């Protein structure tokens, strides 16, 4: 099986991280993967906020119930939509899809580089958007955090249960 | 850099297909990659339709208000849908869009890894596009098409190629 497919098949969410730091070069690689995502009409509606300040990471962890592992991560990447770059009218919401594709790219890149990461949902929960923006401090109102991705080197103790992939969701030539 | 990483940064939208058939084996691998996507609370609120019927593919290619012309020469179209009966309740229901977008990116990356051309063509949230696709594919109301992904064997023929006029190259002194 080719290495890329293996990476896609074996990517899992990691929520426990070792103390090991992530170097700047590796962070740049993660961001480049995010930037390589497809986007509607090539609008690239995304912004990436990299948090490596322990104080902010801890603050985010305390205001997000489902993101509390962020306090143990050396970094977190917050993938945001920039509403000023979105299309007008009905197409405005495509930013969610662009940013989701970028998030998946970052998760896969992290996995390929031996890192552990997890997508924690922020948008569209109003409280989570407000809390994450506030914890970071100066996020303008047109920048909407979609996903908070804590990232670190995994620790061996984290044992993942086998995931079932139901194939009854696939339909040929009709539902 | 590792192969999986390179695959992410070299993926591009492919819109030129030869019209040749992509084998079922390859399509199954691509779909399996889709199913490996993360989803909020592991709800996996997705459904995938694979359209291989030439007539339906041609209809997709000509749908008004879509950018799906390349489907004309595609081998198949993968229609990624959300299933609102499998989602989280309430406000969190709309997470299906993010889950199925992650699935779509996996499908595009797997296609690229296997040397198959693919392009994400948007359906949701355009009300008109959702309606037309739902009618065409007999989708029940709880199945919402996020996109159509035409896939096919990549054609080397570059339709964007420009005519090149070499008369602007001059050797030596200017000659009229
Ligand atoms: C949500 C979404 C909708 C898209 N819709 C279309 C479409 O309808 N037709 C099309 O030809 N390309 C579509 N694309 C592909 C983009 O045009 C393409 O990703 C973008 O131009 C960047 O080029 P790349 O994918 O080669 O990196 C879509 C992409 C996304 C993410
Ligand atoms: C849109 C979205 C939101 C998610 N939000 C959270 C979250 O808030 N906290 C968390 O621990 N995991 C979150 N996850 C991760 C899922 O729980 C995980 O992907 C799912 O259980 C499948 O497991 P896997 O990623 O290991 O394949 C989210 C995933 C997605 C796609």
What does this structure look like?
- The complex is a heterodimer of chains A (175) and B (176).
- With 175 residues, chain A is α+β, with helices and mostly antiparallel strands.
- Chain A has a domain at 31-151: NADH Oxidase, CATH 3.40.109.10.
- In chain A, 34% of the residues lie in helices and 18% in strands.
- Chain A has helices at 3-10, 24-35, 54-63, 94-112, 126-136, and strands at residues 46-51, 75-82, 116-117, 120-121, 143-152, 170-172.
- Chain A is globular and about 45 Å long.
- The model of chain A has no long low-confidence stretch (mean pLDDT 92).
- Chain B has one domain: 3-Layer(aba) Sandwich (NADH Oxidase), CATH 3.40.109.
- In chain B, strands 1, 2, 3, 4 and 5 form a five-stranded antiparallel β-sheet that branches.
- The model of chain B has no long low-confidence stretch (mean pLDDT 94).
- Classes of the chains: A alpha+beta (175), B alpha+beta (176).
- The interface between A and B is large, with 52 and 61 residues.
- Strand 6 (170-172) of chain A pairs parallel with strand 1 of chain B.
Number of helices of chain A: 5
Mean pLDDT of chain A: 92
Percent range for β-strand residues of chain B: 15-25%
Structural class of chain B: alpha+beta
CATH class of chain B reads: Alpha Beta
Q: What is the averaged pLDDT score of chain B?
A: 94
The most extensive interface, with participating residues per chain, is: A-B, 52 and 61 residues
Main pleated sheet of chain A: 5 strands, antiparallel
Low-confidence stretches of chain A: none
How does the major sheet of chain B shape up?
5 strands, antiparallel
Under CATH at level 1, the class of the domain at 31-151 in chain A stands as Alpha Beta
Order of helices and strands of chain A: HHEHEHEEHEE
SSE pattern of chain B:
HHEHEHEEHE
Cα end-to-end separation of chain B: 52 Å
Radius of gyration of chain B: 20 Å
Q: Structural class of the secondary structure composition of chain A?
A: alpha+beta
What oligomeric arrangement do these chains adopt? heterodimer
Distance between the termini of chain A: 30 Å
CATH topology of chain B: the name is: NADH Oxidase
């Amino acid at each position: 099986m080719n290495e890329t497919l293996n990476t896609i098949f074996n990517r899992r969410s990691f929520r426990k991280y070792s103390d090991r730091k992530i170097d700047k070069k590796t962070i740049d690689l993660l961001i480049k993967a995010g930037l390589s995502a497809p986007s509607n009409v090539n609008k690239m509606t995304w912004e990436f906020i990299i948090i490596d300040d322990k104080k902010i990471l801890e603050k985010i962890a305390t205001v997000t119930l489902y993101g509390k592992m962020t306090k143990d991560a050396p970094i977190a990447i917050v993938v945001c939509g920039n509403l000023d770059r979105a299309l007008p009218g009905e197409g405005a919401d495509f930013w969610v899809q662009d940013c989701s594709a970028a998030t998946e790219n970052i998760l896969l890149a992290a996995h390929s580089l031996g890192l552990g990461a997890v997508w924690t949902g922020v948008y569209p929960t109003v409280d989570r958007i407000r809390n994450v923006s506030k914890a970071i401090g100066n996020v303008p109102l047109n920048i909407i955090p979609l996903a908070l991705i804590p990232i670190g080197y995994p620790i061996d103790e984290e044992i993942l249960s086998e995931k079932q992939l139901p194939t009854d969701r696939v339909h040929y030539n009709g539902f | 850099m590792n192969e999986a990483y390179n695959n992410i940064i070299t993926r591009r939208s492919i819109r030129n297909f030869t019209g040749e058939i992509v084998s079922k084996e390859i399509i199954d691998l691509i779909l399996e990659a889709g199913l490996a996507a993360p989803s909020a609370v592991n709800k996996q609120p997705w459904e995938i339709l694979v359209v291989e019927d030439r007539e339906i593919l041609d209809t997709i290619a000509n749908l008004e208000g879509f950018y799906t012309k390349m489907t004309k020469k595609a081998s198949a179209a993968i229609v990624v849908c959300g299933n609102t009966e499998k989602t989280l309740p309430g406000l969190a229901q709309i997470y299906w869009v993010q889950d199925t977008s992650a699935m779509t990116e996996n499908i595009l990356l797997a296609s690229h890894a296997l040397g198959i051309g693919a392009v994400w063509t948007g359906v949701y949230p355009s009300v008109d596009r959702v309606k037309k696709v739902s009618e065409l594919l007999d989708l029940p109301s709880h199945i919402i098409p996020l996109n159509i992904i035409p896939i096919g064997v990549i054609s080397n023929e570059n339709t964007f190629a420009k005519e090149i006029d070499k008369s602007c190259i001059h050797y030596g002194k200017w000659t009229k």
